[in-house]
Design goal:
alpha/beta; Aspartate Aminotransferase, domain 1; Aspartate Aminotransferase, domain 2; four-stranded antiparallel β-sheet; 13 strands; about 40% helix
Length: about 325
Amino acid sequence: MLEHGGRLRQAARQWGIPLADWLDLSTGINPWAYPVPGIPISAWQRLPEEEDGLEAAARAYYGAKHVLAVGGSQAAIQTLPKLLPPGRAAVLAPSYAEHAAAWVKAEWAVTPFAPARLEEVAKDHNVVVVVNPNNPTGEHITARRLRAAARALAKRGGLLVVDEAFADADPRDSLADLAGTKAAPNLVVLRSLGKFFGLAGARVGFAIARPELLEALADAIGPWAVSGPARVAAAAALNDRAWQTEMARDLAAASQRLETLLQITLGASTGTPLFRWLPHPRADWVHDELARRGILVRLFLEVDGSSSLRFGLPGDAAEWQRLEAALDALRKDL
């Protein structure tokens, strides 16, 4: 399995610090999760049914015509490559590593590409996969460029897959309303409730695409992909516009605060309202020193020798103070 953030139990064993004493900033998950209402007992007792309002809430929230609820966008990431005959897939790099791994596992030839090469790879690949905004860099590719790439791919029957897991807090380049329409039948958009809504444990995501592709995806994944209780929680979150508006504002302010704090010790960062990312020549040392203090951040070590760190948002005043004190303690050695 690929490495991911949030593996606190492993960190607790490695560093000899009790689980309850950790500050986990490794995931980019909203620390202020949506306050899920009470779950009716029927959601636990009955098999999930699609006519419960979840898909309607998703269509309204994303402005999409066709949606499929899946067990987190990861379910679609793993399944989609198996539905198509193997060919050439270009996958944005660096980005969420599960994308490239899924296409490789399905026996596709995978080409990593930098954002500047989007137009180039769209001309000679069967599939192009983009994470937008990107994880871990936070970089945006404009909707205009993505639409052009989709058109270039469509000329040869190709597919554009856009993972928008971090788009909720900053949806300016989202293509969710375009995916699967007559204007872009070869566009697939993946969304998740794990990040912005802070409901990663519910394992709820959506694939947005043309109906026949969603039908094939649903058939491959199988019935009851999302549990009844998770469907109730997800529908409530998607329908709560007031919470969404207030949370987007709060996250933007917190992200700016984190950027200011990191600049003092480590330098300028990029990112999204949910995390900050920065390359650093001593990223592994910073990661270890923070871990010795019970603070877990995400470390990225690339094959070219470069290294970087991703910081999620502290959740309260005590956590902010703890991070600030730890970074201040490292400053003299940097």
